[in-house]
Amino acid sequence: MSRDTERMYLNTGDDPLFWHAPDAAGGVFGSIVPAPPLRGMVERIHFGHEWIDPATPLTERVLPDGGVHLIFNLGDAPTEPGSGGHAYEALGARCEPTLVRMAGRVEQVTVTLRPGGMASLLGLPAGELAGQTVALDALWGARAARVLEQVAAAAPGRPRALAMEAVLLGMAGGRADRTDPAAAEAVRIITRTRGRIRVRELAAALGVGERRLGQIFTRHVGLAPKAVCRIARFRATVNLLQHQPERAWTDVALECGFYDQSHLVNEFQALAGLAPGDFRDRGCGFFQDASAAAA
Protein backbone atom coordinates (compact mmCIF):
# COMPACT_ATOMS: atom_id res chain seq x y z
CA MET A 1 0.00 0.00 0.00
CA SER A 2 1.39 3.42 -0.94
CA ARG A 3 1.96 6.02 1.73
CA ASP A 4 -0.65 8.78 1.98
CA THR A 5 0.24 12.16 0.54
CA GLU A 6 0.46 14.70 3.35
CA ARG A 7 -0.29 18.39 3.47
CA MET A 8 -0.37 20.89 6.30
CA TYR A 9 -3.16 23.30 7.12
CA LEU A 10 -3.19 26.36 9.33
CA ASN A 11 -6.21 28.57 9.90
CA THR A 12 -4.65 32.03 9.86
CA GLY A 13 -7.85 33.97 10.48
CA ASP A 14 -8.78 35.80 7.29
CA ASP A 15 -7.25 33.19 4.98
CA PRO A 16 -6.40 29.51 5.24
CA LEU A 17 -2.82 28.56 4.52
CA PHE A 18 -1.88 25.22 2.98
CA TRP A 19 1.41 23.50 2.33
CA HIS A 20 1.09 21.06 -0.56
CA ALA A 21 3.26 18.32 -1.92
CA PRO A 22 3.52 18.76 -5.72
CA ASP A 23 1.08 15.91 -6.39
CA ALA A 24 -1.36 16.67 -3.57
CA ALA A 25 -5.01 17.28 -4.19
CA GLY A 26 -6.46 20.76 -4.53
CA GLY A 27 -9.92 22.23 -4.19
CA VAL A 28 -11.99 25.33 -3.65
CA PHE A 29 -11.90 27.05 -0.27
CA GLY A 30 -13.24 30.30 1.11
CA SER A 31 -14.98 31.93 4.03
CA ILE A 32 -17.44 34.65 4.98
CA VAL A 33 -17.55 37.07 7.88
CA PRO A 34 -20.88 36.53 9.65
CA ALA A 35 -23.62 39.13 9.94
CA PRO A 36 -23.22 41.65 12.82
CA PRO A 37 -25.59 39.88 15.24
CA LEU A 38 -23.31 36.82 15.14
CA ARG A 39 -19.93 38.48 15.38
CA GLY A 40 -19.72 38.26 19.14
CA MET A 41 -19.99 34.47 18.87
CA VAL A 42 -18.68 33.50 15.42
CA GLU A 43 -15.40 34.62 13.88
CA ARG A 44 -15.82 33.18 10.38
CA ILE A 45 -17.75 30.54 8.46
CA HIS A 46 -15.50 28.55 6.13
CA PHE A 47 -16.54 26.41 3.17
CA GLY A 48 -14.58 24.06 0.97
CA HIS A 49 -14.84 21.07 -1.31
CA GLU A 50 -12.38 18.86 -3.13
CA TRP A 51 -12.06 15.43 -4.68
CA ILE A 52 -9.34 13.12 -3.36
CA ASP A 53 -8.82 9.85 -5.20
CA PRO A 54 -9.60 7.05 -2.69
CA ALA A 55 -6.69 5.10 -4.19
CA THR A 56 -4.32 7.81 -2.97
CA PRO A 57 -5.73 9.20 0.31
CA LEU A 58 -4.51 12.47 1.76
CA THR A 59 -3.38 13.01 5.33
CA GLU A 60 -3.85 16.60 6.46
CA ARG A 61 -1.75 17.85 9.36
CA VAL A 62 -3.97 20.47 10.99
CA LEU A 63 -1.86 22.86 13.02
CA PRO A 64 -3.33 24.31 16.23
CA ASP A 65 -4.87 27.77 16.00
CA GLY A 66 -6.26 28.01 19.52
CA GLY A 67 -9.84 28.01 18.26
CA VAL A 68 -12.97 25.92 18.72
CA HIS A 69 -14.59 24.78 15.47
CA LEU A 70 -17.91 23.23 14.50
CA ILE A 71 -17.53 21.07 11.38
CA PHE A 72 -20.36 19.84 9.16
CA ASN A 73 -19.40 17.18 6.61
CA LEU A 74 -21.52 17.08 3.46
CA GLY A 75 -19.41 14.46 1.70
CA ASP A 76 -17.07 11.73 2.85
CA ALA A 77 -16.16 12.61 6.43
CA PRO A 78 -12.43 12.79 7.23
CA THR A 79 -11.22 10.52 10.02
CA GLU A 80 -8.75 10.87 12.87
CA PRO A 81 -6.56 7.97 14.04
CA GLY A 82 -8.62 5.59 16.12
CA SER A 83 -11.87 7.36 15.34
CA GLY A 84 -14.42 7.21 12.55
CA GLY A 85 -15.60 10.40 10.92
CA HIS A 86 -18.68 12.25 12.15
CA ALA A 87 -21.26 13.99 9.99
CA TYR A 88 -21.06 16.90 12.42
CA GLU A 89 -18.52 17.46 15.15
CA ALA A 90 -17.07 19.98 17.56
CA LEU A 91 -13.29 20.33 17.70
CA GLY A 92 -12.06 21.69 21.00
CA ALA A 93 -9.08 24.01 21.28
CA ARG A 94 -5.76 22.16 21.40
CA CYS A 95 -2.00 22.66 21.54
CA GLU A 96 -0.92 19.85 19.23
CA PRO A 97 -1.39 18.99 15.57
CA THR A 98 -4.28 16.80 14.46
CA LEU A 99 -3.76 14.26 11.68
CA VAL A 100 -6.85 13.82 9.54
CA ARG A 101 -7.19 11.22 6.76
CA MET A 102 -9.23 12.32 3.75
CA ALA A 103 -10.47 10.45 0.68
CA GLY A 104 -13.33 10.73 -1.79
CA ARG A 105 -15.65 13.71 -2.07
CA VAL A 106 -14.72 15.94 0.84
CA GLU A 107 -16.97 18.91 1.49
CA GLN A 108 -17.23 20.83 4.73
CA VAL A 109 -18.77 23.92 6.24
CA THR A 110 -16.83 24.97 9.34
CA VAL A 111 -17.84 27.51 11.96
CA THR A 112 -14.94 29.09 13.84
CA LEU A 113 -16.24 30.31 17.18
CA ARG A 114 -15.06 33.57 18.68
CA PRO A 115 -13.48 33.74 22.13
CA GLY A 116 -15.97 35.26 24.52
CA GLY A 117 -19.04 33.94 22.74
CA MET A 118 -18.41 30.27 22.06
CA ALA A 119 -19.97 29.01 25.30
CA SER A 120 -23.31 30.45 24.20
CA LEU A 121 -23.41 28.29 21.05
CA LEU A 122 -21.66 25.24 22.50
CA GLY A 123 -23.97 24.97 25.47
CA LEU A 124 -21.04 24.27 27.82
CA PRO A 125 -17.70 25.86 28.82
CA ALA A 126 -15.14 25.71 26.03
CA GLY A 127 -12.62 24.13 28.40
CA GLU A 128 -14.71 20.96 28.61
CA LEU A 129 -13.91 20.30 24.94
CA ALA A 130 -10.18 21.04 25.15
CA GLY A 131 -8.17 18.58 23.08
CA GLN A 132 -11.25 16.59 22.05
CA THR A 133 -13.28 15.93 18.93
CA VAL A 134 -16.90 15.34 19.92
CA ALA A 135 -19.92 14.39 17.80
CA LEU A 136 -22.04 17.53 17.80
CA ASP A 137 -25.27 15.68 18.54
CA ALA A 138 -23.81 14.96 21.98
CA LEU A 139 -24.07 18.71 22.60
CA TRP A 140 -27.00 19.77 20.42
CA GLY A 141 -29.07 16.61 20.24
CA ALA A 142 -31.32 16.29 17.18
CA ARG A 143 -30.65 19.92 16.23
CA ALA A 144 -27.24 18.92 14.80
CA ALA A 145 -28.85 16.73 12.12
CA ARG A 146 -31.41 19.41 11.30
CA VAL A 147 -28.67 21.99 10.81
CA LEU A 148 -26.82 19.65 8.45
CA GLU A 149 -29.99 19.10 6.42
CA GLN A 150 -30.62 22.84 6.11
CA VAL A 151 -27.07 23.52 4.97
CA ALA A 152 -27.07 20.60 2.51
CA ALA A 153 -30.21 22.00 0.86
CA ALA A 154 -28.21 25.00 -0.40
CA ALA A 155 -25.90 24.94 -3.42
CA PRO A 156 -22.25 23.99 -2.75
CA GLY A 157 -19.71 26.63 -1.81
CA ARG A 158 -20.58 30.09 -0.56
CA PRO A 159 -24.38 29.48 -0.57
CA ARG A 160 -23.89 26.77 2.04
CA ALA A 161 -21.88 29.14 4.23
CA LEU A 162 -24.72 31.65 3.94
CA ALA A 163 -27.21 28.93 4.83
CA MET A 164 -25.15 28.16 7.93
CA GLU A 165 -25.16 31.85 8.80
CA ALA A 166 -28.98 31.90 8.58
CA VAL A 167 -29.24 28.88 10.87
CA LEU A 168 -26.89 30.40 13.44
CA LEU A 169 -28.76 33.69 13.38
CA GLY A 170 -31.88 31.78 14.37
CA MET A 171 -30.01 30.01 17.16
CA ALA A 172 -28.32 33.16 18.46
CA GLY A 173 -31.50 35.10 19.23
CA GLY A 174 -31.27 36.50 22.75
CA ARG A 175 -27.79 35.09 23.39
CA ALA A 176 -25.66 38.12 22.55
CA ASP A 177 -25.82 39.37 26.13
CA ARG A 178 -24.15 36.13 27.29
CA THR A 179 -20.87 36.86 25.53
CA ASP A 180 -17.80 37.95 27.50
CA PRO A 181 -15.94 40.83 25.83
CA ALA A 182 -12.99 40.38 28.23
CA ALA A 183 -12.13 37.03 26.66
CA ALA A 184 -12.20 38.45 23.13
CA GLU A 185 -10.09 41.42 24.19
CA ALA A 186 -7.58 39.15 25.92
CA VAL A 187 -7.09 37.09 22.75
CA ARG A 188 -6.76 40.29 20.69
CA ILE A 189 -4.00 41.50 23.02
CA ILE A 190 -2.20 38.16 22.77
CA THR A 191 -2.44 38.23 18.98
CA ARG A 192 -1.28 41.84 18.79
CA THR A 193 1.76 41.11 20.98
CA ARG A 194 2.43 37.86 19.05
CA GLY A 195 2.21 35.97 22.32
CA ARG A 196 4.94 37.99 23.96
CA ILE A 197 3.04 39.05 27.06
CA ARG A 198 3.13 37.59 30.55
CA VAL A 199 -0.05 36.31 32.13
CA ARG A 200 0.14 38.84 34.96
CA GLU A 201 0.56 41.65 32.40
CA LEU A 202 -2.46 40.40 30.48
CA ALA A 203 -4.56 40.25 33.65
CA ALA A 204 -3.51 43.79 34.56
CA ALA A 205 -4.40 45.06 31.08
CA LEU A 206 -7.92 43.66 31.54
CA GLY A 207 -8.26 44.85 35.11
CA VAL A 208 -8.76 41.37 36.57
CA GLY A 209 -6.74 39.03 38.75
CA GLU A 210 -4.80 36.09 37.31
CA ARG A 211 -7.23 33.59 38.84
CA ARG A 212 -10.21 35.34 37.29
CA LEU A 213 -8.37 35.50 33.95
CA GLY A 214 -7.89 31.74 34.09
CA GLN A 215 -11.61 31.24 34.71
CA ILE A 216 -12.50 33.45 31.74
CA PHE A 217 -10.21 31.44 29.47
CA THR A 218 -11.55 28.11 30.70
CA ARG A 219 -15.13 29.09 29.95
CA HIS A 220 -14.76 31.23 26.84
CA VAL A 221 -11.50 30.18 25.10
CA GLY A 222 -10.82 26.57 26.03
CA LEU A 223 -7.10 26.90 26.76
CA ALA A 224 -5.06 28.57 29.46
CA PRO A 225 -3.70 32.06 28.68
CA LYS A 226 -0.14 30.75 28.49
CA ALA A 227 -1.17 28.12 25.92
CA VAL A 228 -2.84 30.76 23.74
CA CYS A 229 0.37 32.82 23.95
CA ARG A 230 2.39 29.82 22.75
CA ILE A 231 0.13 29.36 19.73
CA ALA A 232 0.24 33.09 18.89
CA ARG A 233 4.04 33.03 18.99
CA PHE A 234 4.08 29.94 16.78
CA ARG A 235 1.77 31.56 14.23
CA ALA A 236 3.91 34.68 14.21
CA THR A 237 6.93 32.47 13.54
CA VAL A 238 5.16 30.74 10.65
CA ASN A 239 4.31 34.14 9.21
CA LEU A 240 7.96 35.20 9.42
CA LEU A 241 9.09 32.00 7.70
CA GLN A 242 6.56 32.56 4.93
CA HIS A 243 8.08 35.92 4.09
CA GLN A 244 11.71 35.24 5.02
CA PRO A 245 12.31 31.50 4.58
CA GLU A 246 16.09 31.83 4.53
CA ARG A 247 16.43 33.50 7.94
CA ALA A 248 18.86 31.80 10.31
CA TRP A 249 17.12 29.88 13.08
CA THR A 250 18.96 31.80 15.78
CA ASP A 251 17.59 35.04 14.32
CA VAL A 252 14.08 33.57 14.04
CA ALA A 253 14.19 32.44 17.68
CA LEU A 254 15.32 35.85 18.87
CA GLU A 255 12.84 37.87 16.81
CA CYS A 256 9.86 35.69 17.70
CA GLY A 257 10.43 35.69 21.44
CA PHE A 258 11.86 32.23 22.14
CA TYR A 259 14.44 31.88 24.88
CA ASP A 260 16.87 30.27 22.47
CA GLN A 261 16.98 27.98 19.45
CA SER A 262 16.39 24.90 21.60
CA HIS A 263 13.17 26.44 22.89
CA LEU A 264 12.05 27.09 19.30
CA VAL A 265 12.78 23.47 18.34
CA ASN A 266 10.78 22.13 21.29
CA GLU A 267 7.80 24.33 20.47
CA PHE A 268 7.76 23.28 16.82
CA GLN A 269 7.87 19.63 17.86
CA ALA A 270 4.98 20.17 20.26
CA LEU A 271 2.76 22.37 18.08
CA ALA A 272 3.51 21.03 14.59
CA GLY A 273 4.90 17.57 15.30
CA LEU A 274 7.91 18.45 13.16
CA ALA A 275 11.39 19.82 13.61
CA PRO A 276 11.69 23.42 12.37
CA GLY A 277 13.91 22.38 9.46
CA ASP A 278 11.45 19.72 8.32
CA PHE A 279 8.62 22.23 8.63
CA ARG A 280 10.39 24.80 6.47
CA ASP A 281 11.61 22.25 3.92
CA ARG A 282 8.03 21.36 3.03
CA GLY A 283 7.54 24.84 1.59
CA CYS A 284 4.28 26.54 0.72
CA GLY A 285 2.31 25.07 -2.17
CA PHE A 286 -0.39 27.71 -2.40
CA PHE A 287 -2.05 30.44 -0.45
CA GLN A 288 -5.80 30.41 -1.00
CA ASP A 289 -7.72 33.49 0.07
CA ALA A 290 -11.46 33.83 0.49
CA SER A 291 -12.02 36.19 -2.43
CA ALA A 292 -10.20 33.92 -4.88
CA ALA A 293 -12.08 30.86 -3.71
CA ALA A 294 -15.45 32.54 -3.95
CA ALA A 295 -14.85 33.85 -7.47
Structure characterization notes:
The chain has 295 residues and is α+β, with helices and mostly antiparallel strands. It has two domains: 5-177 and 287-294, no CATH class; 179-281, Arc Repressor Mutant, subunit A (Orthogonal Bundle), CATH 1.10.10.60. It contains twelve helices and eleven strands. A hairpin with a 4-residue loop joins strand 1 and strand 2 (16-19). Helix 3 runs antiparallel to helix 4 and helix 5 (181-192) packs across helix 6. The protein starts with a strand and ends with a helix. Mean pLDDT is 86; it is low at 19-24 and 284-295. Keywords: DNA-binding, Transcription, Transcription regulation.
Give a topology summary.
Layout: E1 5-11, E2 16-19, E3 27-32, E4 42-52, E5 58-62, E6 69-73, E7 88-91, E8 98-102, E9 104-113, H1 118-122, E10 133-135, H2 137-140, H3 143-152, H4 158-172, H5 181-192, H6 199-206, H7 210-220, H8 225-243, H9 249-255, H10 261-272, H11 276-281, E11 286-287, H12 290-294
Parallel strand pairs: 1-5
Antiparallel strand pairs: 1-2, 2-11, 3-4, 4-9, 5-8, 6-7, 6-9, 7-10
Helix pairs in contact: 3-4, 5-6
